[in-house]
Amino acid sequence: MKTSTTALSIFTALLLTSSAFASEATELEALKQELKELREMTNTLVDETSDLKTGFSYTTVDTQKSHSGLGSAASKVYYSKSPLSIGGYGEMYYAQTTEGDAKVDVYRFVPYIGYKFSDNIILNVELEFEHGGVKDGAAGDGYVVVEFMYLDFLCNKNANLRVGNMLMPMGLINEKHEPTLFTTVQRPNTEKTLIPSTWHESGVMAYGEIAEGLSYRLGGFTALDLSMGAGKGDSWLRDSRIGSFGDTQRDDLGLGVVARVDYTGINGLLVGASGYTDTHIKMYDIHADYKLDAMRLYGVYTQTTRSDAPNGEPESAKGGYINASYDMLSFTSWSEKMPLFVQYESVAAQDAIAGGTSVAPKKTTTVGINYFPHEQVVLKADYAMQTQDDKTDLAIASVSMGFIF
């Protein structure tokens, strides 16, 4: 009997001890949760204090994010903590040609201004100051322009609507034209002359995902005005853009239709195709961008055909480029990047001219190096060698700096 009583006492003591331990464990978990909540409240108070001082909280650029094919800085408003978002990019360069010409150019300063009216109605605007702006109102290379201004109506990942003046979803660089996103000092001629970047028109566009890793963009826009490009030679497509300006030489603005499909289902790979058509023009491109560790390979090929071209005017164009780079600092413990690159490009802006003639393509080989002291800052140097009819036409040595914010 005494033994049973002793055993019962021991069991009761163990039970009470276990209950005490369980209670302490529960209290410990509760304390951990309270500590987590206090930390979150502290972070919120820090942000709110910053808001009181500055009027809004700053959102840094996430260079790994892109909304609907836009560059990282242009996508900033979509990931901003504040209704108001300020971002942008800039670049300037020095160039020296073999003909003895030299140039320093404050090439671009571009602020982005975004505003969230709600979680699904977003304004995004790009303003561009080129070549230092306009001096004393004089005509020249410098100008200020609204490069896009649109409203996004976000519905779901499969279907969204964009209305306003926007970047045309063609090629690789027209939408992603921030200087940290391509290696050369100058944008490739393929995407300046054949896909006339920066190409922006007014219209309506739907976009979203068809399936996981497969996206689309489809829109109707003001069409190219070929009368403005008449007699402009290689610049016939570039000078036909309407953009955001109201002056055009035609009575009917016309309708241009653009469609694009991209596949990103393989890690590091983007591959796709775009097409543009209006009453007179048919243009398409295929594009790819592949990143694997320290290596990057990207390029574009495009063709354009024109119906009813007047005698002496271009009726077709074609060209493309391929760019390969490798980060040389990947062999070290440094956190910075320093890609060494080579690019080959062939551009035939007047591949066929009405009346039976043509102009030989310009072929350019560019070698160079980039240095990224910060992922949002790049210093570039390159040497471009251009030939036409198998004869050296021009060589240009260039250095530049660029940034996004």
Task: Describe it.
By secondary structure, the protein is mainly beta. It has a single domain, classed as Porin (Beta Barrel). It is 14% helix and 47% strand. It is built from two helices and 16 strands. It has helices spanning 2-54, 190-194, and strands at 84-97, 102-118, 121-130, 143-154, 160-167, 200-211, 214-222, 255-263, 269-277, 281-292, 295-306, 314-327, 339-353, 362-374, 377-388, 391-404. The protein has a 16-stranded antiparallel beta barrel. Strand 2 and strand 3 (121-130) form a beta hairpin. The longest helix is centred in the N-terminal third of the chain and has 53 residues, at 2-54. It is globular. 32% of the residues are buried.
Task: Summarize it.
The protein has 405 residues and is mostly beta strands. The protein contains two helices and 16 strands. Mean pLDDT is 89; it is low at 13-18 and 48-52.
Identify the quaternary structure here: single chain
Q: Say how many strands there are.
A: 16
Spatial separation of the terminal alpha carbons: 83 Å
- H and E order: HEEEEEHEEEEEEEEEEE
The main pleated sheet reads as: 16 strands, antiparallel, barrel
* The CATH top-level class label: Mainly Beta
Kindly estimate the percentage of residues that lie in beta strands according to DSSP.
over 45%
Low-confidence stretches: 13-18, 48-52
Q: Percent of residues in helical segments?
A: 10-25%
* Assigned CATH architecture: Beta Barrel
